[in-house]
Amino acid sequence: MILIADSGSTKTDWAVVEDGRMVLAMATQGINPFHQERGNIETVIEEELLPKMGNIDPKGIFFYGSGCREDKVEMMCDILGRAFPQCGKIEAQGDLLAAARAVCGEHEGIACIMGTGANSCLYDGNRVVENTPPLGYILGDEGSGAVLGKLFVNALFKGQLPETLKDEWLRESGLTLNIIINKVYREPLANRFLASTSKFIRQHLSVEPLEGMVVGNFREHFRLNVNRYGRKDLPVGAIGSVAYYYREQLEKAAAAEGYTLGKVMRSPMDGLVRYHSTFS
Questions:
Q1: Cα–Cα–Cα angle for 198, 13, 121, nearest 5°?
Q2: Which of 122-136, 236-250, 266-280 has the lowest mean pLDDT?
């Protein structure tokens, strides 16, 4: 029996897996060892996770999270080891490896994350061997929801989209240009605000410039990030809500850039369960 975690800053999904099947799914608040102190993480484990685990004593723990950078791995493993002292194997890895293992399994491939932000890597079937720095939504993050939102707002206010579409979005959202500028340049989490436009965009893809914008955003991801790996022979899999809900447009972009789209998942958990199903 093993325990798998897929963690973001807002929520952590946990799965107890036995004989290759998920037997218990749980959720706690997010765990990000890059941003959180050790004591905060220990509190989440002790007060939220352990009561839900009951008497379950996993033989292996595989924790994946966006804040699991190299300098935080030892701390995260130690926290989990103290919470589960009988556990024989504990790993803490980044979210990019989670994406790669979920969509590629034990096979070589290219894996992408496409949600609020974006990332990509070349994967050898076991580990990440190359990564193009995504640089965040201001300097990079092509293919992400945040960049899509930036393109959308720019096009609305610079006359590249129908005026009726702008009026509809402003009416539904309750926004004005001044509020938008304030949210992007003065308030925190501007990337999440920009990415929140994705739902409206998806509902209006019949407006021709919008679908072209989505496809173009994905094509830039391939050109500026994936092309650096020089492996058009490999399938490209993707994790994240933007990839999942715009799969048709992602497939068009991949084909236009000479790639074959592999598995696309909203969350990596099912893929991670398969990947770790042989653990004993």
A1: 65
A2: 266-280
3-state SS, residue 87: coil
For 11, 75, 81, 208, 250, the CA distances from 69, given in Å and listed in that order, are: 18, 11, 18, 41, 29
Q: How many other CB atoms sit within 10 Å of the CB of residue 159?
A: 9
84 pLDDT above the threshold of 80: yes
Q: What percent of the chain has pLDDT over 70?
A: 99
The kind and range of the H/E element at 151 are helix 145-157
β-pairing, 21-29 vs 260-265, is unpaired
The encoded tokens of residue 101 equal 């293992």
Asked whether 5 and 12 are in contact (CB, 8 A), the reply is yes
Of the pLDDT bands very low, low, confident and very high (cuts 50, 70, 90), residue 280 is low
What are the beta bridge partners of residue 112?
Answer: 120, 238
CB count within 10 Å of CB 246 equals 28
Torsion of CA 7, 12, 18, 24, to 10 degrees: -170
Q: Provide the token pair at 11.
A: 């929520």
d(CA 250, CA 217): 9
Whole-Å CA distances, 41 to 9, 112, 167: 11, 27, 45
Q: What are 154's two structure tokens?
A: 């720019």
Q: What is the pLDDT of residue 127?
A: 93
pTM for the whole structure? 0.89
Q: How confident is the model at residue 66 (pLDDT cuts 50, 70, 90)?
A: confident
Beta-bridged to residue 63, according to DSSP, are 5, 92
| Inter-residue contact 109 to 234 (CB < 8 Å) | yes
